[in-house]
Design a protein that fits this description.
alpha+beta, two-stranded antiparallel sheet
C-alpha cells in the first residue's frame, strides 16, 4: 500500500478537523518519515500525543513505515530514562490502536 497523499487541516484552538485537505509532497513525506525528525520530537517531548496521531495516520496500511517506527520506538524505550520514555509511550499508545491488518 502507498502512503497517504494528503493531510487534513486541524484547528488546535477548537480541536476540530478543518474541511481543507493539504497535499503531501514527496519531500514533506520524506521529512515526516525520517527517523531523525521523529526521534528529535520524542527526545524533546514536543507534542507527543499529536505526533503519535500523525504517525498512526501515516502507519495505517503502510507496513514499511510501521516497521520502521516500531523499531525506532522500541529502541528509544530501551535506552531512555524515565522522563524520556513517557514521550515514546505516548506515541506507542496512538500507534497501537490502529485498526489495520498489521
Amino acid at each position: 500500500m502507498k502512503p497517504p497523499s494528503t493531510l487534513l487541516g486541524f484547528d488546535a484552538a477548537t480541536m476540530t478537523n478543518l474541511p481543507e485537505k493539504y497535499p503531501l509532497k514527496d519531500e514533506s513525506f520524506d521529512y515526516i518519515l525520517s527517523s531523525e525528525f521523529v526521534e528529535l520530537c520524542l527526545k524533546e517531548g514536543v507534542q507527543c500525543v499529536e505526533l503519535g496521531k500523525t504517525i498512526a495516520h501515516l502507519c495505517y496500511k503502510y507496513e514499511k513505515f510501521s516497521k520502521k517506527i516500531a523499531k525506532l520506538l522500541l529502541h528509544g524505550i530501551s535506552r531512555g530514562d524515565f522522563e524520556k520514555v513517557k514521550s515514546y509511550l505516548d506515541v506507542v499508545t496512538q500507534v497501537a490502536i490502529i485498526k489495520d491488518q498489521f
